[in-house]
Amino acid sequence: MVSYFSGKHIAVTEVKQGEIVTDNRFTALALRDETLVSSDDSGEAYYYLPNESRVKKNETIVSLDKTGDLIREIKNGTDDEVSLTDDQKLSITELLNSFNEAYSPDSFSSTYYLKQNAADYLSLIKGEKVKKSLSKDIKSLVSDGTVTNVKAPMPGLLCLSYDNLNGLTEDTFTKESFNESALKTTDVSTGDDLSDGDTAFRLVTNDNWKLVMPVSDSLAEDMKSEGAIQVRFERDGTKVWGVPHVIERDGDKYLVLDLDDSMDRFSDSRFLDIELLFDNESGLKVPNSSIISKTRTSSDGEYQNTYGVYLANKGYTQYVEVKLLYKNGQYSIIEPVNCSALNLYDYIVLDASKVKDGELLNN
What we know:
Blueprint: H1 2-6, E1 12-14, E2 16-20, E3 25-31, E4 34-38, E5 43-47, E6 54-55, E7 60-65, H2 69-77, H3 86-102, H4 110-133, H5 135-143, E8 147-151, E9 156-159, E10 161-163, E11 185-187, E12 193-194, E13 199-204, E14 209-215, H6 217-222, E15 229-233, E16 239-249, E17 252-259, E18 271-277, E19 281-287, E20 292-297, E21 303-311, E22 318-327, E23 331-336, E24 347-349
């Protein structure tokens, strides 16, 4: 009785099976190698290619018509009907099949992107038809100065929109860059009146791009051991792999993902809602307070940090070394280094900092 009332009373907890599910959804900032191409004349614009078309160096993207003659001739010489070759029909079929395979009711908005992609493909066919059938007339109008062609200065992906964050890089973004309400986007299209010096289109010149997002200190620490991360885009449910690294700027930590896939599908968006897909860790789930860190000397004389818990099954504390699999703010997923040393439903000390190995428990 004297021992009971005079000794320390240590709270214990039961080892349970569980998992830690993390919600890693972010709004990421997209960074690309992109350049704005300006018109060097004025006139009514006619774009031969739809948004997100692949273009060659010196390919004509838009004609600027000072008199309107070219625009009228194009309207008189084309109609809404488009005759497709067998190869073009096959491309449409593949587009539909890809949509069908990736479709999920949770991302119904992808239906609208399918519609837009199909419309863009038909616009591409029509634009090629116009350039071919009216090539002589266009050359003649260019010669007499009534039409000016704006060409691609380099190969790349054509984008018919631009914003006030064009040219932003990993070295130049700031905390204010993530203010979505400050983003100003401008679209360009056929029928616009462009003046000398106006932006005619944007050109993305590299398929490699980056996604940047602010992250917590704990997630930044976890990223140090990740070689690659799978990313799911909320817009259409597609998944890609990215290579992560963490940078610190003005006291804040940012996760940067280097991607080499899907840039063309999202070239029109500066901000993208994404989810980082980590495997949910499951195993022996214990409170973080029950884990204690110790330093030991290895056989080669180097210092190593180890983790352990104190078993409380026998009325005294017994240190058991464990491997830390995953940790969040409150709990950790662990496994014993010796598979027979710790089991499901064992009792361990709730606050490992209050005891030492071999200490008598009065509970």
